[in-house]
Amino acid sequence: MKTSTSIVDPTAVLGQGTTVGEGCVIGPNVRIGAGCRIGHLVVIHPDTTVGNEVRVDDHATLGKLPMRAANSATTKEQELAALRLGDYCIVGTGVVLYRGAAIDSKVLMADLCTVRENVAIGRGTIVGRGVTVENFCKVGRYCKLESECYITAYSELEDRVFVAPGVVTSNDNFVGRTAERFKHFKGVTVRRGGRIGAGSVILPGVTIGADGLVAAGSVVTRDVPPRSIVMGSPARVWREVPVEQLLENQGWTDA
């Protein structure tokens, strides 16, 4: 008979039917719901709460504390609430979820993605492979963040936002120079149903209006009007989004 090599703190609580793979470390006061599947070599840091029927794949880290460089502009010394992970979530291989994140139910976090502290992610959102969601961000319900996109700190994405692979967002017009920059950090805002095409760059403080669409490869330097398509470098309004593509005409529900 094989003996498990996992270390589970005596104060941790595991729900009925939950299974834990080999080589895991589950820290003090962790709460894991019923019917969860924890893979091999998973680390779950103290106080983390995991809902019911959650799948956590090998080498994932849940509840990691942030690191702070001496000259960091966005990472602050602070008391962080425990990581909260909702029911029916899927956490891929090598995923890192920081303490201070709150992740709603039915969120898929694909392999190698990172979700930082002070981040909220809404129900049913997909965080793709290798995506980074930096600190102080809010991501709405039923969003799709495709592979390798980068969501900069202090950004807000409302419900049903689509971000294509390789998109880069930014929050520092001073590009890391002079103390003045600390007063002006501002991420990007994408209103409900906004879409950003592959490989686009969105500059600090830009708002993409509801149902706005950024064409692939664009550099967006100014706000995008609602229901408009912009393209180019710098991006300019090309035409309106076709009526059949508007979010209101998709027949989707937010249940």
Automatic annotation (TrEMBL):
<dbReference type="InterPro" id="IPR001451">
    <property type="entry name" value="Hexapep"/>
</dbReference>
<dbReference type="InterPro" id="IPR050179">
    <property type="entry name" value="Trans_hexapeptide_repeat"/>
</dbReference>
<keyword id="KW-0808">Transferase</keyword>
<protein>
    <submittedName>
        <fullName>N-acetyltransferase</fullName>
    </submittedName>
</protein>
<dbReference type="Pfam" id="PF00132">
    <property type="entry name" value="Hexapep"/>
</dbReference>
<dbReference type="GO" id="GO:0016740">
    <property type="term" value="F:transferase activity"/>
</dbReference>
<dbReference type="Pfam" id="PF14602">
    <property type="entry name" value="Hexapep_2"/>
</dbReference>
<dbReference type="InterPro" id="IPR011004">
    <property type="entry name" value="Trimer_LpxA-like_sf"/>
</dbReference>
